[in-house]
UniProtKB/TrEMBL annotation:
Protein localization: Cell inner membrane
Pfam families, alphabetized: MatE
Species name: Halopseudomonas sabulinigri
Protein name: MATE family efflux transporter
InterPro entries: MATE_fam, MdtK-like, Membrane_Transporter-Flippase
Keywords: Cell membrane, Membrane, Transmembrane, Transmembrane helix, Transport
Domain of life: Bacteria
């Protein structure tokens, strides 16, 4: 018998279902961004070189995290569809196998990133003043990749079953802790030495390790929709193969976005420390203002996944359309507000540096009025992923980064009179074009014909046998 929340997701009011899921996710994402904002706030007190060190490091670590995140994405998609199809046994199996895959992947990628960090920074062409801080920040971040992966997986799987409040409470506690640890690790206190830029990464690593540990305990206790058992960690190669082929396009998609940010950093770095600092602050602002749309898109993922699993295809389509409209209106209004107070926002992060304030405000104002397009893209791509059409989401990401964003940024900045401002203009142009492409693709309707719970019946049969051996059934 479906729970009250399950009935709301599958048959109830769509606006209410979206708000029920999206509001806790938005709040959690706002708090999650507190890691970056807290780092930016305290590191900004060290000067432009320190801000540049974090700005250069973030795209590299994001790329490594993105390479493994497709597996968590596949787990969340399968969790939502199996939940909608009324298969809690397979939900638990998905959780255990995703945990196994994500842990192994994070260890391998974190080790590779740690070893290659100096070479990556040299490739980026950072100055000697920025290099030492960036290397320390990047290496500590790579050590913490395993905790980041585990907690991303925890949040994704919990969203798949419609549980969003518990992750919110965990993030609230760890962000508060991070705010206290940041100045302690960056500047030191009493006998404790300060570690500068690297201290910000150390504070984040500590709090994310705590969050990952709490997530594992919750899964093992099984009180919130997912019951993780140690025996479930025995590799199920049939499921792993299915999850890999489902998640691989997702990894390519996220890696493409991460690589795009990294390549963009090359271009930004060629214009000097001032432009790097402005880009870093503008990128942080962009992450924050997209939080409402991200919350809606994650709610879309859960609702579309569960409704596709239950066979409610038209309802899944209606959910996506309504969410995209909400996101477009919301981000457009936020963009208008931010446009009017851009200098004050930048000054909050880098007080007293008139050059960074001026350039950062210019970047924010140029891209702000087109933010509504980001909302549309996020919600449509979320529906593609949740229905199992990871390839569609991947193609949109490839078009965004390599056919639009970077070529525009390069041509406008290097082959026009705009200079660094050409990079800024690539953002609104890309956002508008990709929103239109996403809407056209969605209107074709080909995504509606994929339902993972109806495919590969032999896979489900074999997995059922594995579940029986593990004691789930």
């Amino acid at each position: 018998m479906p729970s009250h929340r399950q009935q709301l997701f599958l048959t109830g009011s769509i606006p209410r279902a979206l708000l029920t899921l999206a509001v806790p996710i938005m709040l959690a994402n706002i708090l999650q961004s507190g890691y970056q904002l807290t780092d930016a706030f305290w590191v900004g007190r060290l000067g432009a070189d320190a801000v540049a060190a974090v700005s250069v490091s973030m795209p590299v670590t994001f790329l490594v995290i993105a390479m493994g995140s497709g597996l968590a994405m596949a787990g969340a998609t399968l969790t939502a569809q199996y939940m909608g199809a009324g298969r809690p046994d397979l939900v638990n199996h998905v959780a255990a196998q995703t945990m196994l895959m994500v842990t192994i992947t994070s260890i391998v990628l974190g080790a590779i990133g740690f070893i290659l960090a100096p070479h990556l920074l040299r490739l980026l062409g950072v100055t000697d003043a920025v290099y030492a801080g960036a290397l320390g920040f990047m290496r500590v971040s790579f050590i913490g990749v395993i905790f980041v992966f585990i907690y991303i997986m925890f949040q994704s799987l919990m969203r798949g079953v419609g549980q969003t409040r518990v992750p919110l409470l965990i993030v609230l506690g760890t962000v508060i802790l991070n705010f206290g640890l940041d100045p302690l690790f960056i500047f030191g206190w009493g006998p404790l030495p300060g570690h500068g830029v690297m201290g910000a990464a150390m504070a984040t690593l500590t709090t994310q390790a705590i969050a990952a540990g709490i997530g594992l305990i919750i899964f093992l206790r099984g009180r919130h929709g997912i019951q993780l058992a140690w025996r479930g960690l025995k590799p199920d190669m049939l499921y792993i193969r299915k999850a890999f082929f489902l998640g691989f396009p997702g990894s390519v998609e996220l890696s493409t976005r991460g690589l795009g940010l990294m390549v963009m950093s090359f271009l930004v770095a060629s214009f000097g420390t001032l432009t790097i600092a402005a880009y870093g602050i503008g990128s942080n602002i962009l992450q924050v203002i997209t939080i409402p749309a991200m919350g809606l898109s994650m709610a879309v993922s859960t609702l579309v996944g569960q409704n596709m699993g239950a066979g409610n295809v038209q309802r899944a389509s209606n959910i996506t359309q309504l969410a995209a409209l909400y996101a477009f209106i919301g981000l457009s209004l936020v963009g208008l507000l931010v446009y009017t107070i851009a200098p004050q926002i930048v000054a909050f992060f880098v007080p007293g540096d008139a050059g960074v304030i001026s350039e950062g405000a210019r970047f924010i104002r140029i891209m702000a009025l087109a933010w509504g397009g980001i909302g549309i893209q996020l919600c449509v791509v979320a529906a593609f992923r949740a229905s199992g059409n990871m390839v569609s989401a991947m193609v949109i990401a490839l078009v965004t980064q390599w056919m639009l964003q970077f070529p525009l940024a390069y041509v406008l900045s290097k082959h026009s009179t705009l200079g660094a401002e050409g990079i800024w203009w690539s953002f609104p142009i890309t956002n508008i074009l990709v929103a239109l492409i996403s809407l056209c693709w969605f209107a074709r309707g080909s995504w509606k014909h994929t339902r993972l719970t109806e495919d590969e019946r032999q896979t489900v049969k074999v997995t059922d046998e594995a579940l029986s051996e593990e004691g789930y059934r």
